[in-house]
Amino acid sequence: MIAFRFPEGVYRWELEKAGRRVTVDPTGPLCVNDHTLLEAASAGAGLACVLRPRAADWLADGRLRPVLEDWCPAFPGLRLYYPSRRMTAALRAFIETLRLDQTTFNEPPLARKL
């Protein structure tokens, strides 16, 4: 498994199948914090947990393939609360961007090399 480090710490994989939830601490010698995650998985360094839209090109051209799809929960979507009916143009544009991108996040996120 290839770990991905955020500023807050290593991302723990969240898997779900038939209502059973499992959190996995990725173990292994490789931990990255940038785009090299996909490159490492493509080179055979291990499994990478990424959102499908981020790996779309890699999946489309065969450098990666999805695995553990039946353990990948669908992303339920984003929720946004704003306390006023008055909305700035910037907020309106941000919300519209989220609406357009939301459908791409409902696919399983795991990928590995063929």
TrEMBL record:
One Gene Ontology biological process: DNA-templated transcription
Return the Pfam families for the record: LysR_substrate
* Molecular function in Gene Ontology: DNA-binding transcription factor activity; sequence-specific DNA binding
* Similarity section: Belongs to the LysR transcriptional regulatory family.
InterPro entries (alphabetical): LysR-type_TF_proteobact-type (IPR058163), LysR_subst-bd (IPR005119)
The LysR substrate-binding domain sits at 5-99
Q: Which residues form a coiled coil?
A: none
This one is known as: Transcription regulator protein
The portions of this protein that span the membrane are: none
Q: Please, which domain of life does this record's source organism belong to?
A: Bacteria
